[in-house]
Amino acid sequence: MMRSRYVHKLFMNILCLLVGLIVSFPVIYCVGVSFMSASDLSSYPPKLFPSTLYWENYKTVFTSTPILLFMWNSFLIASIGTIGRLITSSLAAYAFAFFDFKGKHFWFLIILGTMMIPGDMLIITNYITVANMKLINTYAGIMIVMIASATFMFMLRQHFKTMPRDFRDAAFVDGCGDLRFFLNILLPMSRSVLSSIFIASFIGLWNAYLWPLLVTNTEHMRTVQVGITMLQFEESMVYGPVMAGVTVILIPSVFIFLAFQRQLVQGITFSAIKG
């Protein structure tokens, strides 16, 4: 019995390791190519790792493009947009989870219905609205369509519904109002879900390309995903600098994940114990 458990555990560990390697292989190859010279890139058979570290690719990234300015623009947009989404989504989710008002289910279905509308269908309407508001080439023009998210509101509403109403009733008996209960009790108990939403939203806004491309037409307002295309030259495709640029812009996403990893693990552990 013990032997079969050991074999099963070993098999699952090996399987998880293989899946992890398959999923992370594009990132590993991207980092490897970023350190390759032109001779390594044109060699046959193709190389996974460079023969020597070729730092000129990274030098090209920082000298041919204002990559740090692009990263700052993306960081500012992703941070403020994510915080805005957390505020609007959590407040709306709290209302739909704990309040009783006329048309509650109807408006909730309306919000869910917006999740079925492809974002590309709204681009022209959103652009006209932003242009009429004189917000072209501004941070507000980029972020205004990112402040609210029906998906995250739905996720938080479903999570809040799992919270026993006795918590809220007991807090109200002790003189706690809705705002205090929301800030001091409900949000700390929802830290793992909020961390997951923060990571998903930040990475999604960090990787946004089409909308920032449409509403910005000056270099100092470009985001990193738009600016990285400046490393593609018309005469040829230079893969080394492009991969170096991609590696650089991956760093904030990795940092955000590592920063919230502990909360994610705690949330998963808590959910397993609760289940």
UniProtKB/TrEMBL annotation:
<feature type="transmembrane region" description="Helical">
    <location>
        <begin position="238"/>
        <end position="260"/>
    </location>
</feature>
<dbReference type="GO" id="GO:0005886">
    <property type="term" value="C:plasma membrane"/>
</dbReference>
<dbReference type="InterPro" id="IPR000515">
    <property type="entry name" value="MetI-like"/>
</dbReference>
<feature type="transmembrane region" description="Helical">
    <location>
        <begin position="136"/>
        <end position="156"/>
    </location>
</feature>
<dbReference type="GO" id="GO:0055085">
    <property type="term" value="P:transmembrane transport"/>
</dbReference>
<feature type="domain" description="ABC transmembrane type-1">
    <location>
        <begin position="71"/>
        <end position="260"/>
    </location>
</feature>
<dbReference type="InterPro" id="IPR035906">
    <property type="entry name" value="MetI-like_sf"/>
</dbReference>
<comment type="similarity">
    <text>Belongs to the binding-protein-dependent transport system permease family.</text>
</comment>
<feature type="transmembrane region" description="Helical">
    <location>
        <begin position="193"/>
        <end position="211"/>
    </location>
</feature>
<keyword id="KW-1003">Cell membrane</keyword>
<keyword id="KW-1133">Transmembrane helix</keyword>
<feature type="transmembrane region" description="Helical">
    <location>
        <begin position="67"/>
        <end position="99"/>
    </location>
</feature>
<protein>
    <submittedName>
        <fullName>Carbohydrate ABC transporter permease</fullName>
    </submittedName>
</protein>
<keyword id="KW-0812">Transmembrane</keyword>
<keyword id="KW-0813">Transport</keyword>
<keyword id="KW-0472">Membrane</keyword>
<dbReference type="Pfam" id="PF00528">
    <property type="entry name" value="BPD_transp_1"/>
</dbReference>
<feature type="transmembrane region" description="Helical">
    <location>
        <begin position="106"/>
        <end position="130"/>
    </location>
</feature>
